[in-house]
Amino acid sequence: MLPSDRSAAPQPAPPDAEGSAGASWWRRKLGEWFGIDLRSLAIFRIALGLIVCFDLCDRLRDFEAMYAETGIMPLQLARDWWPSPAQWSIFFLSSSDTFTLGVFLAGIVLSLLMIVGCCTRLGTVGCWVVMVSSSYRFPLVDMGGEALVRYLLFWSMFLPLGRCWSFDAWRRPTIDPRPVANVLTFCLMMQVCIMYFTAAYWKGRTKAWRQGMGLIHALWMDVFTRPLGDWILAHPRVAKVLNYAALAQEGCGVLFAFSPFYTKPLRLLTAIAFFAFHISIELTMSVSWFSYASLVAWVVFLPDITYENRFWRLPVAPERKPVVVVPRTRWGLAGMTALSVFYLFSLATTVILILALFLPQVDKNMPQIVRVQGDLCALPQGWMMFSAPPKLNIWFAAEARLRNGEVLDLLSGKPFTNQKPADLCTYYENFRWRQIFILLPDRKARYPEQVARVLAQRWNDRHAEEEQVVSLKFYHMQESSDPSKKGDFDRKLLATLQLEKRPDNEIINLQELLGEGF
């Protein structure tokens, strides 16, 4: 063999080179799976900040009814609601309405800082504190959407949300354009996965969902259903197909975002599929902030090909800004290590708390530190929404006799009737009032009399002297979810209020007098 031939012959790769190539593949793949593009983080920051801002402004609309000391839940009642001292709220520091209002206004300012990316970390941490505090101060209106917003804020507090498209980035002389991939991004993505896997598990345990009837039962709840949901309800075959499609997407769809092959294209398609999924939920049902928060959660899954492709290019930073990859300092590495340990423990706590919901042995043997960690960080979550078929379709009515002799329903402002409202989804003033009423029949609810008093007071504050409420009867109506019994309902008197005959505005709660049943 000629020397030239010998030199051209293929040489076997040394064993360590093969191992290095395998390790390199795994590092690259882990970066693709759990890395978040800076532009996705920027959109995530802006959208999440907008939700927080709108949520806090919306809460202020009902400030006197829900957060003032003279409202439905005074401060002491809110403190007594929570069994653990680790369940905290800034609002617990003072019962002053001025202090409470100041916290809300501070939260709005912090959300604006988060939106524009100025002092981003301060804004994000502050928004999380205010959102947790407001939920613990008035837990009656805490739903899946508000909970998801809190979780997204918690898992993203120490991510570089302000590194791109922000005032913080504009003030920096250089920028590191690399995607962020670390334990914190892993935990944020796992929170999204946990939500879908848990929801699919609870639905899969229910016979109705396995038989294709779960969506029909969910849409039967008129208080949530929009007109498109009514159309689906009128077409059982369509509802059955969508029932199984929802189960499949919640149970398996998120796995495509972590495909070992064609990761970026499949991740983009998966995100688009979940965008469509949650838009369809919002079009068919009124579920507070849940659909919007879920859309925001999927933004972090958008890969770089979303912003750089053959059709357009959205740069991380202006072209004139120099790109520098800054190595971590020793203190920076120590801080990231501590954060990683804390967040991994928090993620493990979240999983354990969810397992405790359906495994009694886990709940019985749970270490106290796990419970305390869950309460301090507001981590408990269940995601059981619409998993169990409702047995009753419920609504409420407030029969008020005015000084001029009229008898009105204070909830609708129309003459009182015993008939179910035509559109329960828009019957209540907003979704927070709807949630308050939904919880009223619960045996743990201790506030029907406060609700009656606040309803009368709100009406009187907005109307002339001759239209003031003289007396009020607060009813709970319920209709069987059995389609064959539609139209038949029972009525229960929860509380009555006499304003003119009782100068001290004393409220008689008839729930105990009449008993808990119908």
From TrEMBL:
Classification via InterPro entries: HTTM-like, HTTM_dom, Sporulation_signal_mat
Keyword Zinc: no
Positions of the UniProt region annotated as Disordered: 1-21
Keyword annotations of the record: Membrane, Transmembrane, Transmembrane helix
Coiled coil: none
Keyword Transmembrane applies: yes
The HTTM-like domain, residue ranges: 33-306
Membrane topology: Multi-pass membrane protein
Signal peptide (UniProt feature, chain positions): none
Transmembrane segments: 101-131, 151-170, 182-202, 268-301, 338-359
Record's GO cellular component terms: endomembrane system
Main subcellular location: membrane
Entry's localization field: Endomembrane system
Pfam family, one: HTTM
Record's protein name: HTTM-like domain-containing protein
UniProt organism field: Lignipirellula cremea
